[in-house]
User: What shape does this take?
Amino acid sequence: MMPESDLLDICGPGQPLLARTAIGTLLANLGQGWVPFDFNTFYAGLYPECTYTALTYTGSEFFLAGLDGGGCPHLFTSLLGGVWEMRSLSAVHPLLGTQQVSCEIIQILHDAEQNQTFLICRRGQLVTLSDCPKCIRICQVTTGELTGGRLEADQICLMKSDGTMLNLPIQDIAQLRVTFSFAQQHLQLNPGVIVDLRLPAEFAEKSLPGSIQVPMEGFYDWLSGQSPSRSLFFVCRTGLMADDAVRLARSQGFRQAWSLGGIRFSG
Assistant: This one.
C-alpha cells in the first residue's frame, strides 16, 4: 500500500476517511489503515465508470468528481461515505438555455461561511452548488485553462495555466436561488418564513402559501428584528429585489437566506 504522503484530497469526518490516488482510484480508511474503495464495481450498472479527479468533505457531505471513458464529468455526493448519489451537472439559463459542465473537474472548494461549493473545471468553467440539489450555476470565467484555486476571505482565487490569478468576489458567483419545492421541504424541518417583497396590492391579489409581505422600504428594520438562525426565503416580481435582499441578509449573518426569484401569477 502506498504511503499516506502520496495520497490526494484526504478528507472526511474522522471515520471514514477517503482519498484519491494519482491514477484516479479511491481509498478508504475506517481506522485500520487504507484499503481500496472500488466505487466503480460497487455502483456498476448504476453510475458510469470513472477515473476520479477531485474529492472533498464539506463538514457534512462528501463531494466526488470523476471523468468517464468518453471524457464527460460526473459528480457524486454522500453524507457518510456509504451511500452515494449522482448530482446533475446541467443548468437552465433564461438567456443561454441549457448549460452543461463539459470538462474535467480538477478541484472542489467549499465556503462554510456562505455554504457554497465550487467546482473548478480545467477548461475555464466555474460551477457553484447551493443547498438545493436542483440548483446549479455554471460560469465560463476564462477562455484559458485553470489549474486550481483557493478561497481567501470573500473571494475565490483561481490559478490559470499561464501563471496568473483570477480573483472573483464570492457574492458575484454564489448560487443563492433555490426552488419553491426546496423551500417547502426546508421549512417543514426548520423555523423560517417566505418573505414577499412585492407591493401590498400584488400580495393581496395572490401570494405563495405561507408567505408574508414585507415592503422593501421597511425591509432593513424588519430584518433587524429577526433571529439570524431563522431561515428566510425571499421573492419579488422580477427576482432582482429578492436577490438583493438575500445578499443583504447574508451580510448581516443570516446564513440560511435564499432567493426564490420572481413570481407572476396569471388568471
